[in-house]
Amino acid sequence: MVNPGFMIVVTMVLLVYGGLNYYIGLRGWQALFSYVPFFNPKVYWTIFLLISSAYLFSRLLEKFLPIVLHEILTVIGAYWMACMLYFLLIILLLDLLRVLNRWLNLVPLGIKQSLNPVLGLVVFVLVIGIISYGAWNARHPQINHYDLTITKQAGALKKLHVVMVSDIHLGTIIQNDRLTKLVDKVNDLKPDLILMAGDVFDEDIESKNKQQVADNFRRLSSTYGSFAVLGNHEYIGGNANEAIKYLNEAGVKVLRDSSEEVGGSFTLVGRDDLSGSRFNGTKRESLATLMQGINPSLPIILMDHQPSHLEEPVEQKVDLQVSGHTHNGQLFPIQFITQKVFEQDWGYLHKADFQLIVSSGYGTWGPPIRIGNTPEIVDITITFK
Fold this sequence. Notes:
This protein is α/β, with parallel strands linked by helices. The protein has two domains: 4-137, no CATH class; 143-384, Metallo-dependent phosphatases (Purple Acid Phosphatase, chain A, domain 2, 4-Layer Sandwich), CATH 3.60.21.10. The protein contains 13 helices and twelve strands. The chain crosses the membrane at residues 6-26, 38-57, 77-97, 118-136.
């Protein structure tokens, strides 16, 4: 039986989404496309409806669509979500200025009417330019380096070179070719340890890519191996257990509310994702429980996908936590929201003996676009004293 509350929420979301798209479409017709010769309203609204609804169709009809058609709709819909955001922001700003002009009469009516197609074209080109840059930016990750000191001895180990990636989001949009480039860049850094801080998969990965992706993961090379934790998207896709099995078989060990002492020098702790309880009904273990039996004299490195509840690792004397999840907002100006939600939504935080690094992520969720931030591979050199 369908939950009535869920249906109400879905209905409200669809109404808001439809209303915003109608507003964008109406302004687009009034300002630009009504001036295009031989372009009548029926053709315009049909094309607009197909583009703006592509992502919804791809999600709702996924089980019934051929794989190729599903991928095409998903990609079109993902790009449209970014276009929708920037069209909405710019059009709202222009409409606000239009309201102010009614009071101040800064632009005479005749000039305003003649500006419509010119202004419409400028807005259209501007948004296409923003999206084009964002698509290029999303495919050119940076390597960001951190030099840290942990005031503990790590056996005979004096330094540890860690490469951390998060939020790869392998799936329909980010496929094996991007993973190939990632593995090449990580191996070029010659790390001692490779950490994947969640959302390795977007929701699921197409069967045609599974073997190629597994082969790529097996190419990862490091002294102490590759480790991962789950993120929220492994749970959203309903494939958390499959993801664990798949990664383990591909040579990446998943730590799910568990720990591992590595080489007698340091301890890795991997937490289950916060979202897990919403999808499987099982609350993750407290960090205090996970820390029982761990040698506190050794350096402790924690992987937790979401940089939330930082008071826990501080209280439990964790030395370093690596996280992802936030994407540093991914699309400007969303980072202003992530900065309010998280104490540290990107970069480095130092509190007493606790240190935190939050990655902006390697991949993208939804639109394969980044504006106002850059995808990254995090390169960390830890000195033990």
